[in-house]
Fold this sequence. Notes:
The protein is of the alpha+beta class. The chain is built from 8 helices and 20 strands.
Amino acid sequence: MKKSFLKLAIIIPIILFFVGITLQGFLGDFPLQAFKFPINIIVFADVFISSIVLHWLFKNKNFIKFLSSGYAALSSIALFSAMVIIMVSTAQENTDNTFIKFFGFNNVIFTWTYALSSFYLLISLGLATLRRLFPFTTKNIFFYLNHFGFWLIVAAGSLGQADKQRLNISVPEGELVWYAHDSKGKYQEPDFAIKLDSFKIKYYPPKLAIVDIHGNMLKAKEFQPKELIKGEKIKYKAFNIEVLDIYENAIATKDTVLFVAGLPENTVVAKLKVNNKVLYIQNGTSFHNPILAKISAKERLAILSPEPSYFGSYIGLYTKTGIKNEKHLIEVNKPLIMKSWTIYQTSYFKLDDYSQDVYVSVLTAVYDPWLKIVYLGFAMLVIGVVYLIFSRPSLKIKK
């Protein structure tokens, strides 16, 4: 029986893989959107109940024994893992690569092969879990938690994709926005609105660079851009460069600095002394061109525009359930979680060249009502794994 189980463990994933590729080639993407709520709930229940019925009525049949065996578990995990590896190693976006596009590897979740691998894994895990559910011992309970947790992760993670939404929201400062756009640019109205009260941004210190006559930076091995710090001394070839002062919100002239209101906040002027000669340089913005300092026939000193070190949005949240102007701060890597929505800070831009102080915050709102079930599965999986690790009998060394 072991030999026949081993053959099945090798043959089944190969067959499923090629069946999936064939269906993908002839039918196109798997119709995952047809499984939106409540259809995915029905499918979820069907797979769960079908596993129980198969175990209850046919557990002594050889094929059901195989599906509940370790051979099928490893086989199904191998096929599912192969799809996950393809997904993480291939950009999940539109591509001009005919091969990748034909097999759907640029959108793995919507492939027939992924659907078949998920189904195979769910049936195998479900039957293996039921096989160990009785007798009701402590070890079997944690085995159940381990396997059923994994089952929940795969089931909720796969079926939940049909309900998942990803929306882009652009909110100018001081304005209330109740609409968004999906990845295809289609207009959407989520069940909440956002008012951007203020947008905060901080910058890293500007850097001194050396460029050629065409404005191209020198290679890193020749000169690595260095942070402009007042009092800093920099040596480059025969040039001794000292940073005398740094000015923000200013414009450099030939021999002085003018402070002007309304300039972009990342405008920087540096006063330098190069071999006892005082020079002024400035970074370029949408308001003015950069000012460079000539140090040789082919080299110029320049300031690289400061890069943002932090940005975040202070917002007022409004919902259809009655929340009015609830205050929140959304930062990079610190999203706002609201029921089944997670709102991320992704980027920003200026409203226009003439409104330098008005920012537009770009937010990404992800709707994933199945995420809590996935988290529950992870919790069960971790509890089961931890117990199984620490419950192993320790090896006793004979003296």
